């Protein structure tokens, strides 16, 4: 480990790797570290013992409406088209999620057209004004029965909180449709890296100006390394030694399983289990990757209170605590805080990529101004 470097990037996920690549391509020397034994962060994928490409930390489906993000990442990967579809197990049926016309018709044994579904929602909805919580969002949109069947228990499992205790933005991420569109996302670009995320990250970081060191914890080396500028993508509260207390996160435990001589386990990439089981969903990776294999590999996701930080919990008191850390961060002239953990935001991958590209631009602009 060098004792004096120009740029230290902490974390080799989307945020850190993109900033490192942009700085290196601008002629800067960069050291990027990650405490895990690999690059790619939570998007890390690998072939399991049976030869199936899996996402070690749960499914990552790339979707965006930003052509520039696709254009940037296309330097490091080819793509395969993939439109993610999700079913939810409700009343012993597997029904489309997000809720759409087919969901309503099959659940209630109706035969409504789009106008009929819209009228149905208008009839059953419970108007809320103002809309403050996730419960408000769903009740205001589709009423109590659909809320209880699809959202209430799933949210309690996922977040460890009732929807009435969560900010409106959580439920607002999931649309409700009157047509038969069963795609989980409707973004203009829905693709997967052809050879996997890890390969994409390896190509991104394969630059003569970048040195990658994995299995290195920032806390263990922060007093040994002098860096002209640090790009920090870890938890912002950890950077400041939790001086105001810990920011709450929701974690996940992953139970991977291979099913030999089973070409396909389920009809779509992900099946949600809102009401039964301790796990929230099962994902079958071959749907995502398009891989041909005589067996298949799946993962069950178990939300937990303790463990690696995955999801910032959006509640007013947590946002207020984050603001206190953010004020400290703004006083760190030679540190940039980028990404989901450093900015305490529930970002999609494309949003992290956009934040990283912007951060790199800002860093390079400041360096030019100083020069």
From TrEMBL:
Its EC number is 5.4.99.9. Gene3D superfamilies: NAD(P)-binding Rossmann-like Domain. Pfam families: GLF, NAD_binding_8. InterPro entries: UDP-GALP_mutase, UDP-GalPyranose_mutase_C. Keywords: FAD, Flavoprotein, Isomerase. Residues 149-346 form the UDP-galactopyranose mutase C-terminal domain. Its cofactor is FAD. GO terms for molecular function: UDP-galactopyranose mutase activity. Belongs to the UDP-galactopyranose/dTDP-fucopyranose mutase family. This is UDP-galactopyranose mutase. It comes from Thermithiobacillus plumbiphilus. The gene is glf.
